[in-house]
Amino acid sequence: MTHPVSGESEQEKEKNTMINHTISADERRLIILRGIRQDHTNIEIAAEMGVRTWTVLNDLRAMSYSKDPELKQAYVDKEIRLHASKQSLVNIRDEKFLHMTGMTFQEKNFRNMINYYKAELQLIYKSKNEYSAITGLSTDIRKTLRRNDILTGHGGRIQLTDKARDYLLCN
Question: Please, which residues have CB within 8 angstroms of residue 77's CB and are 6 or more apart in sequence?
């Protein structure tokens, strides 16, 4: 007979209940921690234990509520691994770009921005008052130039970076 709320038969319910009781809470905790360390999802951890996902979620909630230090460390380690893998992909991409062009992506972006805004930057460079020339630019252009290390400073001290000055002087 099928249970009206959970949609599972009585035999399945008894089987799941028996499994839940055969694995102690400490064993479930260790399996969950090992699963998190191996970057498994909650569904994969539940399948490994042979229980429903809600059991894993309830155990995780209880571990989190009791401020389990090993759970916190497992999540910190997982974040570190995730960040390291993303960083290694970025490094590989940057190395390929450096090999193809002979310059880093940041250098190429800097040069492109200088060349794109060359007329405005020449006016700033040649003006007697850099600040007033810079504030004459639109806010979007100023943000873009600041993001690409062409402008520096805050408030009344906005100016061209030394790197941008050198590049404009040479070209």
Answer: 37
**What pLDDT was estimated at residue 8?**
56
- Residues 51, 35: one domain? yes
- On whether both 166 and 129 belong to a single domain, the answer is yes
pLDDT at 67 over 80: yes
> Residue 160: which domain range?
105-170
Q: For residue 154, is pLDDT > 90? A: no
List beta partners, residue 9: 2
The residue type at 152? T
45 close to 56: Cβ distance less than 8 angstroms = yes
| 21 phi and psi angles, rounded to 5 deg | -80, -25
Of 20-29, 59-68, 104-113, 151-160, give the lowest mean pLDDT range. Answer: 20-29
